[in-house]
Amino acid sequence: xxxxxxxxxxxxxxxxxxxxxxxxxxxxxxxxxxxxxxxxxxxxxxxxxxxxxxxxxxxxxxxxxxxxxxxxxxxxxxxxxxxxxxxxxxxxxxxxxxxxxxxxxxxxxxxxxxxxxxxxxxxxxxxxxxxxxxxxxxxxxxxxxxxxxxxxxxxxxxxxxxxxxxxxxxxxxxxxxxxxxxxxxxxxxxxxxxxxxxxxxxxxxxxxxxxxxxxxxxxxxxxxxxxxxxxxxxxxxxxxxxxxxxxxxxxxxxxxxxxx
Length: 260
Hints:
The protein is of the alpha+beta class and about 260 residues long. It is built from 4 helices and 7 strands; from the N terminus they run H-H-E-H-E-H-E-E-E-E-E. The chain has a 4-stranded mixed β-sheet with strand order 2-1-7-6. It has a 3-stranded antiparallel β-sheet with strand order 3-4-5, covered by helices on one side. The longest helix is centred in the first third of the chain and has 61 residues, at about 30-90.
């Protein structure tokens, strides 16, 4: 018995030391380990759930406020525009696109956005001329003299098809493309129309500061842009180049929605 007594004592001491160490290190049952894990999970759930709703609510409020402010500004702008337009009309009798009253018996302008184009086809004639340059060749851009036709005719008068609701501008674009003639234009919101800058590489101001392209229909120079002139069956459309703001082609008081 004495033989094993020492071993038994040593074993008991070792076991006691291990138990003490385990207890002291916090790994004993029902202590910090289990409680800590539970607390971490609970905290994590709170972190995930709490902030998610708040940003969405804030964003929704901000969007609503932004929409309200935007609508208020639009209403203010619309009121101002209407007021300004009415005042302008009362003072000058021009419409909102600065168009003077149309002569009696002449067609009123039709806004491009209001035009309804159908498949019903009609016919008209169209021509393009720059004859006035021949009489003012000394003022013409010397680098472009070779591109001016000897007779001044860029497109001889020809019959063309157009569709109900189309404008002079629609016709010009299609016929220039069909006949492979250069065309350059820019939209001018102030006149609500396209402005023709160049045809056949002949541009405004190529023959002086008062030169540029103009159009007339049935020998009348409309006082509004070509995008606003709605064609009728049998119309005669002519594009002419002026070197003196229309005076040399028979348009004494021309404005036509073009640049002055």
